[in-house]
Amino acid sequence: MNNSLKNDLLIRAALAQPTERPPVWMMRQAGRFMKEYWEIKNKYSFLEMCKTPEIAADVTMLPIDLLGVDAAILFSDILVTAEAMGGDLSFEQGVGPRFSNPVRNLQDAEKLSVDCLDKLQYVADAIKVIQQRLDGKVPLIGFAGAPFTILSYLVEGGSSKDFKLTKTLLNNEPALAHNILQKIADVTVAYLNMQIDAGVNALQLFDSWALALSWNDYKEFAHQYNDYIISRLNREHVPVISFCKGSSVFAPLMAETKPNVVSVDWNADLLNIKKALPAGMAVQGNLDPFVLYADKPVIKKKILDLFERMRGEEGFIFNLGHGIMPDIPFDNVKYAVEVIKEFRY
Ligand code: 1CP
């Protein structure tokens, strides 16, 4: 599959092979900061966009055509696994994701289905349409949410600032938490292997909210499930990227799960993190996304500072430490991509 890629910078960097410059893609690169996204979004609901392969493909292609990034990421959401398991999911304007049937006790947990891959067939269909559209131009990244992050949405019933209900569940009813986490992990293994079968070129596991956890709780409620998932992927030709906010702290544990790439938030010095990882493990990151609100000379300087720091390192993918915010000016994102693509090692 990768032999047929015209631009395989991302795959080479993920495998810690030499590249002439760092590849660039950005989390949430197909999203609300683009007027072309809104032109589509104004016609459909978010879930309709995810579930209609042609529309998901249209949106996936926006940053390829308009920004010229080195990888596409499937247009979908981490919460589709929770929906397939039985979560009643909606996305409300200005509110974000909401589950009307939160999972808070054993009866709720028992209602969650593990045998639900057929409900996610639309994702495999979207991957096939996207690969036809890409025609080998750049690799396609598939993804899923990691069990702890998905659990937090199911328990809280939506987004949360402090994860109070989730952490209380972990503290007071760890057996129940493990019961739910194991179900999510089993669905995630099947779901990611389905994405590999459908033709993705790389995978990213998003544990966005792991930062909320202590070291011991991360090991017990996040790390062991991420390890369970990554070790069960049919990944010989598909590099795996492990992302969490909190990676500055948890990188040594993330490395134990043997991803190809650790995606790092913006708190840590990226070179120091890379040097502490096993040889041959790549890093992705780690510009603070707020830099993209700044003036262009500042954007350029901060990117080049990062690149100078990483000069000589094989296995470096440029990304933000977290996703692009919806009100970041499009022009600044485009400028950042241009700066990156002009750079040479
Ligand atoms: O209203 C809208 O237009 C929907 C906004 C939107 C978009 C564009 C949501 C709702 N999800 C997405 C797409 C999305 N989500 C992608 C597509 C590919 C791309 O990156 O361009 C991806 C990979 C995600 C993953 C995702 N969804 C994460 C993990 C990444 C991260 O940012 O940490 C998380 C946490 C979500 C949950 C989610 N989806 C959407 C919202 C508003 C939220 C809530 C975020 C929160 O709780 O703060």
From TrEMBL:
Pathway: Porphyrin-containing compound metabolism; protoporphyrin-IX biosynthesis; coproporphyrinogen-III from 5-aminolevulinate: step 4/4. GO terms for biological process: protoporphyrinogen IX biosynthetic process. It catalyses: uroporphyrinogen III + 4 H(+) = coproporphyrinogen III + 4 CO2. It comes from the Bacteria. Its EC number is 4.1.1.37. The record marks D77 as: Transition state stabilizer. Substrate binds at R28, Q29, A30, G31, R32, D77, Y153, S208, H322. Keywords: Cytoplasm, Decarboxylase, Lyase, Porphyrin biosynthesis. The keyword Lyase applies. GO terms for cellular component: cytosol. It is found in: Cytoplasm. GO terms for molecular function: uroporphyrinogen decarboxylase activity. Residues 23-32, 141-157 form the Uroporphyrinogen decarboxylase (URO-D) domain. It is an enzyme of class 4 (lyase). PANTHER family: METHYLTETRAHYDROFOLATE:HOMOCYSTEINE METHYLTRANSFERASE RELATED (PTHR21091), UROPORPHYRINOGEN DECARBOXYLASE (PTHR21091:SF169). Belongs to the uroporphyrinogen decarboxylase family. Homodimer. NCBIfam families: hemE. Catalyzes the decarboxylation of four acetate groups of uroporphyrinogen-III to yield coproporphyrinogen-III. This is Uroporphyrinogen decarboxylase. It comes from Sphingobacterium humi.
